[in-house]
Amino acid sequence: MKKSSSSGSLHGESSKHHHQGPHGNAIETNLRKKYGKMGKVIGSGAGGTVRLITRESDHKTFAIKQFRKRKPSESERTYVKKITSEYCLGSTLHHPNIIETLDIIQEGDSFYEIMEFAKYELFSSVMSGAMVRDEIACCFRGIVDGVAYLHEMGVAHRDLKLDNCVMNERGIVKIIDFGCSMVYQLPFEKQIQMAKGVSGSDPYIAPEVFTTEEHDPRLADVWSLGIIFVCMTLCRFPWKLAKTGCDADPSFEAYANSSGAGKARLLKLMPRESRPILGRMLEVDPAKRVQMKDVLEDEWVKGIEVCTLQAMCLYHPHHLGEDPNCVSNPNPKPRFHQQSAYVKDEVVRGVEVESSEDEEVLSVTTASFTSVQMAVAPVH
Fold first, then answer.
1. Where do the CATH 1.10.510.10 domains begin and end in the chain?
2. Compositional bias (Low complexity) spans (predicted)?
3. Is 159 a catalytic residue?
4. Is there a contact between 300 and 273 (Cβ–Cβ < 8 Å)?
5. How far is it, in rounded angstroms, from Cα 323 to Cα 335?
6. β-bridge mates for residue 196, sequence order
7. Measured in Å, how far apart are the chain's first and last C-alpha atoms?
8. Is 303 exposed, middle or buried (0-12, 13-18, 19+ CB in 10 A)?
9. HEC states along the chain?
10. What is the CATH T-level fold of the domain 7-116, as seen in this structure?
11. Which of 34, 260, 265, 370 could cross-link 365 (Cys pair, CB 3.0–4.6 Å)?
């Protein structure tokens, strides 16, 4: 794309050019004409700033990302390629659990990406402490379906985390932010392109990303998914970094110990039926880790009742954002289970305590895990 002082879009009616005055007063002319005036900032990061924008013609609200300015050391060609690659990738993805990328507009030397707006942050819902077990499972299944779709399209996200998941007013989870994503396989290719370098946010990054020159980005995504479920269940990270050796994280070292005791302790904190697949998703050795097709074939995952665009599940609520009183489906229908085999009818953040021994594990393990602030800056 050639730089121009005119305004334009990569598709649709926005591709028409508009003359910009000598003093730059017409910045956002085309953007405002098509979408209206930009509103408040709802997020920012290394890749740019995201604001709200409400289209005047129909009062529909979108999220608009203003990409960061070009760095002094960055060529114009490289800068524009990064932006257009992110847009082109996002605009080809169409799935209920993936945020829709709708348009891109250039105004002078600024680029704006228009996206579907989902109001609620999954991170905030988790940290509210109000989510129940079936609700957690529903959200997790939505993320699983979205990632499985990405992998079917030959795309690895490479920065999966709670912060990159949002929810609409029905509680349906949507994955956002494809700034770190890569196409690892084109439709006509059989070979997988390996990923190089560290990408993602510290506690979610798979251990092989730190230790190998190149890695399979699909398996790194699977690991991150496993960490997301652990975080949703416990409301905390199990470790700061999945590293061993000289700069090891003690909590991860205990997990990765060859005896398997540390891994067993963590899995004891998870709902019983989730443990088999979660243990395979969080295999330290990527050669032993499952892929997304295996996750989808797991009996627990297949049995999760998940809300869709067409219908909400009647049996669980969805807490929307940090306010525990903001709930979709606030009065779910009661369930009638058969007599449980559990020794004690107790649920701790969605974790069924099966015996007095499990209570001890829960107490000891939770105390031994490193408590980390949930918002961790991505690695760039």
1. 120-379
2. 1-12
3. yes
4. yes
5. 25
6. 214
7. 25
8. exposed
9. CCCCCCEEECCHHHHCCCCCCCCCCCCCHHHHHHHCCEEEEEEEECCEEEEEEECCCCCCEEEEEEECCCCCCCCHHHHHHHHHHHHHHHHCCCCCCECCEEEEEEECCEEEEEEECCCEEHHHHHHCCCCCHHHHHHHHHHHHHHHHHHHHCCEECCCCCHHHEEECCCCCEEECCCCCCEECCCCCCCCCCCEECCCEEHHHCCHHHHHCCEECHHHHHHHHHHHHHHHHHHCCCCCCCCCCCCCCCHHHHHHHCCCCHHHHHHHHCCCHHHHHHHHHHCCCCHHHCCCHHHHHHCHHHHHCCCCCCCCCCCCCCEECCCCCCCEECCCCCCCCCCCCCCCCCCEECCEECCCHHHHHHHHHHHHHCCCCCCCCCEEC
10. Phosphorylase Kinase; domain 1 (3.30.200)
11. 265
Q: Across the strands, what pairs with 98? A: 175
CA distance 46 to 66: 11
Q: Which of 159, 202, 216, 358 is catalytic?
A: 159
Name, in order, each residue with C-beta under 8 angstroms of 228's C-beta and a sequence gap of 6 or more. Answer: 140, 143, 160, 161, 162, 165, 204
**pLDDT < 70 stretches in the chain:** 1-29, 312-315, 329-380
Structure tokens at 298: 């797991």
158: left (phi over 0), alpha (psi -120 to 50) or beta: left
Which pTM value belongs to this model? 0.80
pLDDT of residue 43: 87
CATH 3.30.200.20 intervals, the chain:
7-116
Neighbours of 210 (CB within 10 A): 15
Q: Are 267 and 260 in contact (CB under 8 A)?
A: no
Q: What is the pLDDT of residue 333?
A: 62
Q: What is the CATH number of domain 120-379?
A: 1.10.510.10
Angle at 169 between CA 376 and CA 86, to 5 degrees: 50
Name 318's bridge partners: 328
Nearest-angstrom CA–CA distance, 237 and 14: 44
Q: Which amino acid is at 262?
A: G
Q: Is 65 annotated as a binding residue?
A: yes
Predicted local confidence at residue 322, as pLDDT:
75
